[in-house]
Amino acid sequence: MTLSGAAASTLPGAQAPPQGPVTGQPRLSWLRRLMGSEDARRLLSCVLGLLVLAVMTGPEGSASAPLSGFTGSLFHLRALVFIGLGFVLWAVITLRRRFGERARQASDWVSSAPRRLVTNRQARYGIYLALLAFAVVYPMVLSQFWQNVLVDQIGIYVLLALGLNVVVGYAGLLDLGYIAFYALGAYSAAYWTGALAVHPPITLNPFWAIPLAILAAMLAGVVLGAPTLRLRGDYLAIVTLGFGEIIQIVATNLQGVTGGASGPASVIPHFSVHVLGVHYRWGLADLPYYYLLLGFVVIVLVVFHSLENSRVGRAWTAIREDEIAAESAGINVLKYKVLAFSIGASTSGFAGMLWASQVGYIDSTLFTVQLSILVLVLVIFGGMGSLPGAVVGAAVLQWFPWFLRVHPLFGFQQQDLFIYLGALLIVMMIFRPEGLLPSRRRKREIGLAEHGIGTADAMSEPGGEP
Amino acid sequence: MSTATIDVPHAARVEGDLITAIENLTLSFGGLTVLYDVSLNQRRGEILAVIGPNGAGKTSFFNCLTGVYKPQEGSIVFHSRSGRTSPIVGSKKHPLLVRALEPGGIVPGWWMGWRAVNTKPHRVNHLGIARTFQTTRLFNALTAFENVKVGVEARQHTGPIGAMLRLPRTRREEREGDARAIELLDFVGLRERGNELASSLPFGDRRRLEIARALGTQPELLLLDEPAAGTNPAEKLDLAQLIQRVSGTGVSVLLIEHDMGLVMSLAERIIVLNFGRVIAAGTPAQVQRDPAVVEAYLGASHKPVAGGEEGQ
After folding, report:
1. Which of B122, B141, B170 sits opposite A327 (nearest CB)?
2. Contacts of A331 in chain B (CB under 8 A)
3. What is the nearest CA distance from A295 to chain B, expressed in angstroms?
4. How far apart, in whole angstroms, are the C-alpha atoms of residue A456 and residue A448?
5. Confidence class for position B103, pLDDT limits 50, 70, 90
6. What is the per-residue pLDDT across A99-109, written as a single tens digit (0 to 9) for each?
7. Which residue has the higher pLDDT, B105 or B22?
8. Looking at the structure, do residues A329 and A386 belong to the same domain, yes or no?
C-alpha cells in the first residue's frame, strides 16, 4: 500500500507528456496522455501480468507445434477470461487505493467481531462446540475422494502446521528441516510395527508406537537443538536445512534398514484397538482415520492453547521480542528455545507416525525439503503464532490445489503449485504480513516493526554481545 | 590519568554485611582495556552510585556484573540473604591455595575458585540481581502488565507439562503471578496503564515499567543503568522517590547515573570511574571535594584531560 502509493505520487510528474514532442507527433499524443495516467498504467500491467499467467498455466508447446504454448492460451477463450481477471484485479487495487484505510478498518472490525461479541465463556465454548460438531458431521456428506483429501492432505498438514507454529510462531525460530522429524516419526512407526527389514525387540500395535515415535522425534529435536539453537537467525535456518537433507539422504542410502527409495518391503499396519472386548480396526476407509486425526488435532489445539497463555508461552514471546532483555529477566533462553524446537519436532514426528500408519507405505523420496517449505508456507499464510491461523491456513491452502485439480478452471497443473505459493507469499507479505488470522501479539509486533520499533522475531542480531 | 588511587581501595571496600564483593576486575576487548583493577564492595541495603564521564566503563562494569561480559581477571561474589555465597565471576588465577591463604579466603563456594566461573545472565538473575537498561528494553508488543508478569514468572516453576495440562500448581502460580504483577504495577504507579502496550507508554513510564519488571524477579540487588537519562525534571523527582521506595523495601540499589543532582540526593556512597579505573570513592560530600573527580569531570587547569569534556 504505502510503497505503491509513494511510487505513484512521484511518478505522474516524471511521466507527464513533454510538450514539444506531443505537438510534433499528434498521432501518439493520446497514448502518451493515457500512459501518463496512473490508472491506465496500472490497468495495463494488470492485464499483461494476467496474460503472462495465462501463458504460464496454458497448454504446453510440443515439437510439432512449438508455438502452441502461446497460441493455445492467447488465441483462445482463456485469454478473455484472464483479461477479465486483469480488470478485476485492477478494480480491486484501485478500490483499495481509494478506500484502503476504510477497508482495513472494516476488515479489522470484522476480524475482531468474534472477540468483541463473544465476551463470556459459555458463548465461546458454544462456538467451539458448534465448530467441532460441524467438523464431525460435514465429512460424512463428502465424497470418497474429498474424504481422502481431508485425511491425507488436510488433517496431517494441519497437525504439521500446528507443530511448526510453535517453533516459528511462538519462539520465532526458522526451522527449514521440519520434515526430517516427520520422517523420523514415520520411520519409527515402521520400525516399531515391524515393517522395516530390521526388527524391533517387540512388535507393537501402532497405538503403542505413538509415544515411541514422539519420543524419537523429540530426542532428535533436543539433540539437534541444544547445540544449534545457540546460533541466531540465518545460521539456525541453514543448520536445520542441512539436517533435513541428512535425514533424507540417510533414509535413501540406508537401504538395508529403510528400504531406501523403494520403501520397506512389508506394509505398516493400520491402527487397531483391542481393549475390554472391543475390537476395532482402522482399515482403508478414510472417515475413521479422519475422526482419529480430528481427535488428535483437538487435543493438540487445547494443549497448545494453554501453553501459549502460560508462563512458557510468555517466555517465548519475550525471547522473540528481545533476547537480551529476556535473559536478564531471568529467562533461560536456550532452554526455552530447545523446548519449542522439541515440541515442534515431536508434533511433526506424531504426524509422520499417523500418516505412515494410515498410508501403510513410506519411502525416502517423500521427505523433501519442499515439504518443509510447504509447511512453513502454511504457517505464514495462516498467521504465525496463531492456532486458528495454522488450522485455517493449512486447511485452505491444502484444499485449494485439490479443488483446482478437480475443477481445472484455469488449467491448474500440480507441478505449478509452488509458483502459485511463491506468488501468494509475495502478495501476502505486501498486503497482509501478519497472515490470514493473526495472533494479537504477532500483529502488534509486525505493526511495531514496521514503525521501526523492535524486531518481529528472534532472528536478528541483537547488539551488546562481547 | 589519576594519581589518587592510593586511598581508594579502603573507601570502596567497606566492611559489614556485604551483598557484592568485587575484586580486581579487569576487562579488555582485544588491546583495549575497559576496566582496570576495579574493586568495590556494596553493603546490603545500600544505595551505591557509580559515576564517571562517558566511556569510563560504567555500563561495561554492569555487563560484567550481570554475566553479559566475561572479564579476564578478578572476581565478583554475590552474598544472598539466605547466607549463600555465589561467585558470578571467578578466575583461574586464584587457585585454592592462594585463596585459602587470604584472610577470609575459605567461604562456602570457595572451591569455585578453581575454575573460571562465568555465570550466565539468567543465572545471575536467579541469584538475585536484576537490572534495567540504559535504553529501555521492554517487550514492546506485550502490555505493561504482561511485561511485569514475565519478570514475576522468572521465579515460578511451571514447566511445559504443567502449562499444557493446566495442573493445579500452574493455576495457583498463575493467580499468584497476576496478584504480584498488579502489586508491582501499583508500586511503580502504573496500575491504570496495565493494559496498555509497553511501546505506547511515555518515556518516563517505560523506565518505571522496566524497574517493575526487574523487581518482579524478586532481586536483592537492583542495578539501574542511567534511569534518569532523557527524563524531565518532574519525572526525575518521581524516579528519585521510586528508587528511595525500592530501597525502603530492603533491596540494595546500584546506580549508574550522569545526573549529579539525582546521584547526590540518592546515593549513600559514590564510586567514580574514569578510563576504567576507580579514581575516588566515598560519601557524596567527599567525592564532590575530591580533586581527582573534579579533574576528571571538569578538566584540570594546568593540563588538558581527555575525559573532561563530558563533565556536567
Report:
1. B122
2. 122, 150, 154
3. 16
4. 8
5. low
6. 777 777 777 77
7. B22
8. yes
User: Are A274 and A167 members of one domain?
Assistant: yes
Q: Are residues A231 and A334 in the same domain?
A: yes
> Structurally, how many domains does chain A consist of?
2
Give the span between the Cα atoms of B166 and B172, in whole angstroms: 10
Q: Answer whether residue A225 is part of any domain.
A: yes
Based on the domain organization, do A233 and A325 belong to the same domain?
A: yes
Considering only CB atoms, A466 lies closest to which of B70, B140, B214, namely: B70
Strands B47-51 and A278-281: unpaired
Q: Does any domain span residue A64?
A: no
Q: What is the pLDDT of residues A354-392, one digit of tens each?
A: 999 888 888 888 888 889 999 999 999 998 888 999 999
Please indicate, yes or no, whether residues A375 and A418 belong to a single structural domain of this protein. Answer: yes
**d(Cα A260, Cα A265) in Å, to the nearest integer?**
10
Nearest CB neighbour to B160, from listed A321, A343, A454: A343
Distance from the Cα of B131 to chain A's closest Cα (Å) equals 7
Element containing residue B312 per DSSP (H, E): none
Same domain as A301, residue A410: yes
Mutation site, B153, B157, B173, B197, interface A, largest A CB count within 10 A: B153
Would you state the pLDDT for residue A409? 64
* Closest Cα in chain B, distance from residue A168 (Å): 17
> Which is nearest to A454 in space by CA: A319, A358, A298, A342?
A319
Classify residue A197 by its DSSP letter: S
Asked if the Cβ–Cβ distance from B122 to A453 is below 8 Å, we say no
**Is the domain of A235 the same as that of A212?**
yes
3-class state of residue B287 by DSSP? helix
Examine residue A458 and state whether it is found in any structural domain, yes or no. Answer: no
Query: Does residue A300 register a pLDDT over 90?
Result: yes
Inter-chain contact B139–A318, Cβ cutoff 8 Å?
yes
CA-based nearest residue in chain B for residue A446: B141
Give residue ranges of A with CB < 8 Å to any B CB. Answer: 303-304, 306-307, 310-315, 317-318, 321-322, 324-333, 339, 343, 441-442, 444-445, 448, 453-454, 464, 466
Chain A, chain B: beta-carbon pairs less than 8 Å apart: 122
pLDDT at site A450: 67
Collect all residues of chain B within an 8 Å Cβ-Cβ radius of residue A464: 63, 68
Residue found under cell 481431508: A150
Joined grid coordinates for residue A394: 493449512
Q: How far is A266 from chain B (nearest CA, A)?
A: 37
Do A293 and A189 share a structural domain?
A: yes
In the three-class reduction of DSSP (H, G, I as helix; E, B as strand; rest coil), residue A293 is classed as helix
Q: From chain A, pick out residues whose CB is under 8 angstroms from the CB of B153.
A: 311, 314-315
Question: Which residues have C-beta within 8 Å of that of residue B254, sequence separation ≥ 6?
Answer: B20, B42, B48, B49, B50, B65, B221, B222, B223, B224
Q: Classify the phi-psi angles of A394: left when phi > 0, otherwise alpha if psi is within -120 to 50, otherwise beta.
A: alpha
Domain annotation covers residue A152:
yes
Distance from CA of A432 to the nearest CA of B (A): 18
pLDDT one-digit tens code per residue, A30-86: 777 777 788 888 888 889 988 888 887 777 777 787 777 777 777 877 788 888 888
Helices A333-359 & A206-228 angle (0-180, nearest 10):
150
CA angle A181, A307, A343 (to 5 degrees): 15
Please state, as a whole number, how many other Cβ atoms lie within 10 Å of the Cβ of residue A116: 8
Report the complex ipTM. Answer: 0.83
Domain limits for position A11: 2-58+69-114
Grid cell at residue A282 = 482402522
Nearest to A408 by CA among A58, A113, A14, A22: A58
Q: Which three cell numbers stand for residue A197?
A: 527389514
For A192-211, what is each residue's pLDDT tens digit?
A: 988 887 888 888 888 888 99
**Chain A residue closest to B123 (CA)?**
A330
